[in-house]
Every structure is written in C-alpha cells, then in structure tokens.
Design a protein that fits this description.
The chain is of the alpha+beta class. It is built from two helices and seven strands. It has a single domain, classed as 2-Layer Sandwich (YaeB-like fold), CATH 3.30.2310.20. Strand 5 (74-84) and strand 6 (87-90) form a beta hairpin.
Length: 97
C-alpha cells in the first residue's frame, strides 16, 4: 500500500476546481494509486522524460501527474491538470508534455 502526498502546486490546482470535481478526483486518486501506482493500465501511463512527472493518471477530462518513490512507498502528486479537446492545462496555463 502506498501513501499519497500532494505538492503545494497540486493542492492549488485541485482548489481551482469545483467542490464536486475535487471530490471526484480525490476519490479516483485513492482508488487508482494506493495499490500498484507504477503498473500501466488503460488510464495510467508512464510518460516520456519531462519537467512535470514520470506518470500520468487520466480521470475523465482531468490529468493527475505523479512520481512513485518505490523504496519508501510514496506516490507524490506533482500537478493536476485538465484537458479541453487536445489542449492540456496545468497550473492554469496551456502545457505541452
């Protein structure tokens, strides 16, 4: 079982969403990342090297970017973004991975 930690930037990202969206994203993070966060699935994939994180979790239009620290069993949520069409927004700005 992995512990989930959030960076301050990720907390700020989450606070920018509506209350119901926040609950939905948090519930999905708990459901999908507590066990085996580093196993690729349909909604979870390892990313090419980038400045945000190693992994991406897709939750409807939301994207959760995280790193896994296997030795200490911690999942660190680095950013939470959203997509509009093919455009990704992280920290309120358009971003390309």
């Amino acid at each position: 079982m992995f512990e989930i930690e959030y960076t301050q930037e990720a907390r700020n990202d989450l606070n920018s969403f509506r209350r119901a969206e926040q609950k939905y994203v948090l519930d999905e993070i708990d459901a999908q990342l507590v066990y085996e966060p580093n196993v690729p699935t349909r909604n979870r994939k390892k990313l090419r090297p980038n400045s945000v994180s190693e992994w991406e979790l897709r939750i409807a239009r939301f994207r959760v970017f995280y790193d896994v620290q296997e030795a200490v069993r911690i999942v660190k949520i680095e950013a939470i973004g959203y997509k509009i069409g093919n455009r990704l927004f992280i920290h309120g700005q358009e971003y390309e991975l």
